[in-house]
Amino acid sequence: MLLAAWVTVVTAVILIVPGALVGRRMALPWPVAVAAAAPLTFGMVGVFTVLYGVVGIPWNLLTALLMVLVCWFTAWGWDIVGRRIGLLAPTPVEDDAPRLGRPALLMLIAGVLLGAVIIVLTSIRRLMGTTFLGLNNISQVWDALWHADALQWIHQTGDASALHMGDLMNYDTHGFNYYPNTWHALGSLLYPLTGADTVELFNVYSPAVLAFTLPISVGAAAYWLGRTRLAPDQAAVFAAVGAAITAVFPSLPYVELAFTSVPNAVGVSLAPVTAVLVATAIGDRRRILPAALAIAGTAATHPSGLVVVAVIVGLWWLLQRLPNPVRGRLADVATLAVTGVVALVLISPVIIGTLKISENNELAGFEFRDDQANLATALTRATFQGTELLGHQYPLLYLLIPAAIGFGWLIWSRNWGIAAAWLVFIATTTNAIYEIGGPVSRVLGTLGGYFYNSPHRLTFVVSIFTAIAAGIGVGVLVLGAVRLVGRTDRVRGPLLLPAATLVALLFVMGAGAVRYADNGAIATQYRSEARIGLEDVAAYKWLAQQPGAQDTVILNNLDQGSGWMYPVADLTPLFPFYRANDFSQRQADLYWNVGDIGRDPAIDQTVRDLNIRYVFDSPPSYWWFQNGPQNLAEGVFGDPFLTLRDAGAPGLREIYRQGDVTIFEVTEDVRNGGN
Closest by alpha carbon to 590, among 531, 649, 528? Predict the structure, then answer.
């Protein structure tokens, strides 16, 4: 547990400190700079890892520090030039304008820390105590292998460019592949700081990042909404409770941790605070650059987060600022436009990469609809977070009743933009479960396509809005109780509001304790030995000790997930992931004719060309249609290693067998070409 705690602390430091320092240099007040730190940090990482990849500068702790220094001085220059030309003139502030008091700031920090602690303890203690190998446990989910591979790849090669991920995905062709990998790039800096291995790092870093991005972002949004009607100290109640209560929702972040869709979850979790930064830039143009950088960080972490930002800001401007502009309609639009243009420049690698792989990623074509659902059940599930893995655990009324109160407050306070965004994503989630039909379904399907039309990913978005509303709802009750009690002279005082908030946080802590077992069980789903278990891990480590294993390529069946040998034992598999972009002809020939090694001279030559010395087989494959003999008429592609398993191959010698795992060595005749 000490390692997990240390990784969590270091994660918080590298996530928040760089962005906070640069944000402060961009003239953001310290509380705002800290709140916006995560998207600012990811923005810097997203831009600089691509630039470093272009000029061949490795990504490591030293170059990451250089990145922060360059950004700090750039922000300094932006501030000086902007002031001189009058673009970044400070917003006039009245001397008697209310400011956030120290007790309110402390209770806000307490809410964030409480949320972070609940998330980390719920996710990691359960993992350590109930799964095989504890912190070294391997998730059986498809995505997990890619994330672990990427962490190790960036650490070893120093290449963190999102435009170079094809070098990892396909050993043979290195065909182009774009993947938003700022989350992986930042995580790779933890290796020298913590001493954790890849699997340990992946298992702790995943919840640790969300433990800070979610509470801070939800709290920031709740505070922004509260400030439309309340004094800073009162709005801080919304923020503190919202930050803490985030950790109690099952889908924030426990369902996403189970499915290991962490970069998507982190990108979406950055959206609320990024949207707040963009919206407030209209009133304070000094925030244009930090807002643009935050947009870049959100998009580079995962483009789905950018979609959420666009929906929030777009509906906020349409429903609230268009009728009541801050500086005038034209001036407001100009500020948003400048912010957008700067952001577009910063996210150009995201745009280029996404367009370049668009032919292989028809997002709107993904479908996960429930054949048993109707419109009513779909709407109920979408509204009350009835996503996968929850079973009978919804609706959780002690979370949804405060959310309903918060929704009512949003309508009363005319915060219609955020309420409309919430309803839009409820409708999108409903359509992902049950096809509504007509043009509405097509529009919602297109929006949902950026989330693969996956109900659990969309429910994550809905739950963020619900958590914001729940924090506001509890905050409304706290403020009401304080007003009622404050009528008595004996209990008036400056500490009454913080004390009442502390009581509310204690109730949230109790809810976290009640939800601990269920949320922990959700977070550690898919952690059995269904495909990659103790036998596989033992085989990877045994193989790593064999002659030539570290210097040659291992022929593996990508459908079996044996690419895990790379992050676990630092071996080089021909297929490090469950898929490979630009599959080469010689890869295909070898993969589908592995039983002909030693029999077919062309296959033998391919073995030599690819520097293959060992062959690794560990059924079953991931999908049902990848197992058994081939039967294309029934959609069964089959297992190409089946013949090898049944009859062997003339050019292979079995050297290891344990359970379902078998390792073969290529004979010397084949390796030497018969010489």
Answer: 649
